[in-house]
Amino acid sequence: MRINFWYISSFLISLIVIIPILTVFSSFFEQTTNYFGILKETFLFEYTYNSLALLISVLTLTFLIGTSTAYLVSFYDFPLSNFFKWALILSFAVPPYIYAYSLTAFFENYGTAYTILKNVFGEANYNQHIPKFDGMLGSILSISVSLFGYVYILTRASFLYQSQSLIDLGKNLGFTNFQSFYKVILPAARPAIVAGLSLVAMETLAEFGAVDFFSINTLTTGIYNSWIAFDDLAFANRLSFFLLLFIFALFILENLSRNKAKYHFNSRGGFKQKDKIKLTKKRAFLAFIFCFFIFFISFLFPLSQMLYWTIKFPENLFDLNVLNLLLNTLYLVIISSIVLITFSLISNYGNRVLKNKFLNILSTLSISGYAIPGVILAVAFITFIAWLDESMIKALGLTSIKKIFIGSILGLVLVYFVRFYSLAFNGIKSGYEKINIYVDESAYLLGYSKKKTFLNIHVPILRNSLLFVGVLVALEIIRELPIALILRPFNFETFATTAYISASEDLLEAAAVPSLFLILIASFFIITASKYILRENNE
């Protein structure tokens, strides 16, 4: 085996990502405190049941919302359909915990809904008639409307490249539009749907902010409590281990679905651009109402609620150092995105040119970091640094490294790297799959080195994929909460941490301002890149 720059780089990158993951696995075999016995006899069933109930409910709801909206904007022409095709992904701008704040603020006793009814109809006891979206119902709704975009984007991309010949096949068989949808179109998009649902599942299982706010006991909150309340890091990692096993099962399911699927329709006529069906009158109105309703509840509703409270309580805006929070948030986004994209590019190209089985296995293991809840990765990172400091650094008589990595920007970026490496790596990998290997061979024949091929040919071709990855990583970092809460430097706050701290103290009015800015920043990233993310052949 020839050792070169690309091999060493790819190996080290994967190793950096894997170390915290291996820490989680190794701690599974450590002895735990009595908390395990207590939890096993009391709350373990509740944690597991709530996690599964939440997961199944969210997957069902995101599937229904994501596939239906993707189908409407991909196959039909109706009022504002071109607007909805990109506006629907603005749901990514609202993290589940902020949506949870909005639900509570609007529907709570004497909340926004009460104020509206009072101003319109006068004084009355409206609280008894206002529905309450809290507990499990609030968690399901908050997570679903925030995450359905994963299913929507991937499913819509699949719908866009389905040939008109495939659609004509359904018509020739005498299918109605609805029958063609679930018998022909939907099965053809199965790999994309499964991939989207896999991302939703991982995010749901790792969600902390929303379920913690609604006081729902899940495996994630159990992990957090076992560490915070009972100081049992080993058991926290043990619970995380079981979550990993479940996530790996989802990976296997997604890969099996992808491998068995055909992404093209075999016909002599080749790909035939499909024609959108123009809806009129009642059907056009219903399609518009449905898409607008989803757009409203997923984006306009939380945005309006946070804007309303910001205007109603302007003192919270003036009391907040918005500029400092903005600079801190953007600083983390820029540094982390550059690191993730750079090293994911190197790793992907290393795997491409070397075709080494060991590196491929290592890369597969390294992308599992996305499956681990942020709180566990942060704790695993702290555990590893503490072990390294005690067993090696101090033994060699060197200065402690804890201050360098714990409670520092460096440590925060490193854990972000582990957590979101999967997004960057897979996003760039999907772009690389579209570059024929003959491109590389032609470059080598022209005298290009591997480095020159990488910089002068691959990177320009991958620019749209890099932009997509950059936006996706930026959104995740802006929204991310537990890692920042645990590893941020002293007095280093972001919009996410500031909103959470205010909400945890029952100061939802104060949480509105940082939440509003978080939504606006995330929306900016989405709108800027939407023409690349949702590009069609005719655009």
CATH class of the largest domain: Mainly Alpha
Uncertain ranges: 262-272
Which percent range describes the beta-strand content?
under 5%
Task: Please name the CATH topology of the largest domain.
Answer: MetI-like fold
Structural class: mainly alpha
Give the count of helical stretches.
26
CATH superfamily of the largest domain: MetI-like
Query: How many domains make up the 3D coordinates?
Result: 2
Radius of gyration from the alpha-carbon trace, in angstroms? 24 Å
Shape: globular
The CATH architecture term of the largest domain is: Orthogonal Bundle
Topology:
Elements: H1 5-27, H2 35-41, H3 44-75, E1 76-77, H4 81-87, H5 96-107, H6 112-121, H7 135-160, H8 164-172, H9 177-188, H10 190-206, H11 209-213, H12 219-228, H13 233-260, E2 277-278, H14 281-312, H15 315-319, H16 322-354, H17 357-366, H18 374-393, H19 402-405, H20 409-432, H21 437-445, H22 450-461, H23 463-479, H24 482-487, H25 495-504, H26 508-533
Parallel strand pairs: 1-2
Helix pairs in contact: 1-13, 1-16, 1-17, 1-18, 1-20, 3-4, 3-7, 3-10, 3-12, 5-7, 5-14, 7-10, 8-9, 10-13, 12-13, 14-26, 16-20, 16-23, 18-20, 20-23, 23-26, 25-26
Highlighted features:
mainly alpha; 2 domains; two-stranded parallel sheet; 2 strands; 1% strand; globular
